[in-house]
Fold TetR family transcriptional regulator.
Amino acid sequence: MKDKITKVSIDLFQKKGFTETSVQDICDTLGVTKGTFYHYFTSKEELLLDIHLGYIESILRQQELILNDDGKNWRTKLYDVVYMLLHSIEGQGASARVFFREMRNLSDERLAEVIPKRTQFRLNIESLLRQGVGSGELRKNLDVEIVALGILGMTNWSYQWFHPSGRLSDKEVASVFVDMVLKGIESSNTDSAEASNRMLKSPG
C-alpha cells in the first residue's frame, strides 16, 4: 500500500501541484481512509521527502555503477551518465517533475536529507571532467564546477521537452549534448575527430 500511495501521489503532485493536492485527494483516488495514509506517512511533507529521496537515490545508484566500471574511460562514463538521465525520463519523468518543481515545499530539516545526495551527483560529474583535464584532453583552465552545473542544467530539465518516442532517441540526444559540451571545452591539443569518435562509441 505504501508504494501505491507514493505512485498515486507522484501522479497527483505532477498534475495538480503539491500544495493543491490534499491528503484527502490522495485517499479518494486510492479509495482508502486517511487512517491508511497516516499509517505509512506522518504528513504530506514526509511523503514528498520520500518521493525526493527515492528519485535522487535511484539515479545516484545508477551513476555510481557507471563510475565504477573500470572498463570505460571518462568520456564514455560522461556519455553514460547523460544517457542514463535522459533514459530515466521514460520511467521516472513524473518523479523528476515532482523532484525539481516541489523541492521548495520541503522544510530545511528535510532538505538537509536531499541536498547532500544532489551535491554528490554533481561532484561525481566534476570528477569525470577533472580526469579529462588531467589527461590533457580538456582545457587546463576549465572551470569544472560551472561546466558540471551546465551539464546538469541541460539534462535535468529535459523532462520538460524530451519525448522518448520523438524524432531523436535518448541515445542520440545524449550524443548531441555531450558532443556540444566537449567540443567547447577540449584542449586545442586534442584531435577533435578522434575525440568525437571515442565519445560516440556509446553502449549498444
